[in-house]
Every structure is written in C-alpha cells, then in structure tokens.
Amino acid sequence: VQLQASGGGLVQQGGSLRLSCALSGQPFSMYAMGWFRQAPGKEREFVAVISWSGATTYYSDSVKGRFTISRDNAKNTVSLRMNSLKPEDTAVYYCAAREALVSSRAEEYDYWGQGTQVTVSS
After folding, report:
1. How far is CA 58 from each of CA 16, 37, 53, 80, rounded to the nearest angstrom?
2. One-character DSSP codes across 31-56
3. Cα separation of 11 and 118, whole Å?
4. What is the pLDDT of residues 71-105, one digit of tens each?
C-alpha cells in the first residue's frame, strides 16, 4: 500500500487549504483513513478520521468545526478541507490508513504517507 499526500502550502491566518491523499496497492474501501500532524518539537497528533464507508468521522477538539474530512472511494482519495486556519495549525500533515475501525491513535495505523507541509502565517 502506498499513500501520496498533496495540497500543502503557505496560507495566511484565516485562509483555507485542501489536502488530498491517494491510496494505491489495495482496495481503498478496506481502510479507515486518518489525518495526523506534527509540528516542530511536538509529538504527532490526531486531526481527523473517516470510516471506510464515510459514514463515521471524528475530529480533534482543536480542529472541530473548522476542518472537514471526506473520501471518494471511486477515486481512492481522502481529503481534508481546512478552513479558518490558525498559526497553530502549522505542521507537517500525514495521511494514514488502517484496515479496521476508525481510531485516533497513530500507533494503530498500518500505512503512512510522506507528509505535506502546511504553514499558516499570522
């Protein structure tokens, strides 16, 4: 399984970005898909997760109401729409796949993408 994340960049505070992650090598619908992020000097933290069907989503409290996770099983992609971005959202964002139910624990994911940098300027 390979995951390829894209869509990061530099944006001003209050702006928006959309991250995408494409999965290849296995049927996409087998996996719950998560987004995590890691800021310099900090541990990797959970951002959002979506179940294989898209029916279930969870968000961290820090992004709830601002970020939206979605998936397109026909295109083997998961997206993260990020609105009202804040400087504290600056991090490398990773997508991850888990062949099981949704989880917010990074250690429970089987596959990881390479990460995409998001920088929010104040």
Report:
1. 20, 15, 13, 12
2. -EEEEEEE-TTS--EEEEEE-TTSS-
3. 8
4. 999 999 999 999 999 999 999 999 999 998 999 99
